[in-house]
Design brief:
alpha/beta, 5 strands
Length: 110
């Protein structure tokens, strides 16, 4: 069996969809060959009682400048800041996953 490196991700937004991403990845990380680490959660709120509360940040640049983060999961919604952050992450060489229909509709071809 080959060696698989840990994949560091950041979740942008920790509402219903972001929380669902966390739940799905928590289940996945208990399985072999699913080495996913949620390194950051971007949100304006704090979550002191959450198991990943220490990973919550309000500073997107922290995520953008961390070369160990290879995947950004955008769950913020809307087509303003969500688009801006997604585009910046792509330009920084990160993979972006989104469920944001507004951004895809408005900026998909871009």
């Amino acid at each position: 069996m080959g060696y698989f490196a840990m994949t560091n991700i950041a979740i942008l937004g920790f509402g219903t969809v972001g929380g669902g991403v966390y739940e799905a990845l928590s289940r996945c990380s208990k399985k072999p060959l699913c080495d996913v680490n949620i390194k950051y959660i971007l949100d304006l709120r704090s979550f002191p009682d959450h198991p990943l509360g220490d990973r919550v940040t309000t500073d997107f640049d922290k995520i953008l400048n961390d070369e160990s983060v290879s995947i950004v999961v955008e769950t913020m919604g809307g087509d303003g800041v969500a688009y801006k952050f997604s585009l910046a992450a792509l330009k920084a060489g990160k993979n972006v996953v989104t469920s944001n229909k507004a951004v895809v509709d408005k900026f998909g071809p871009e």
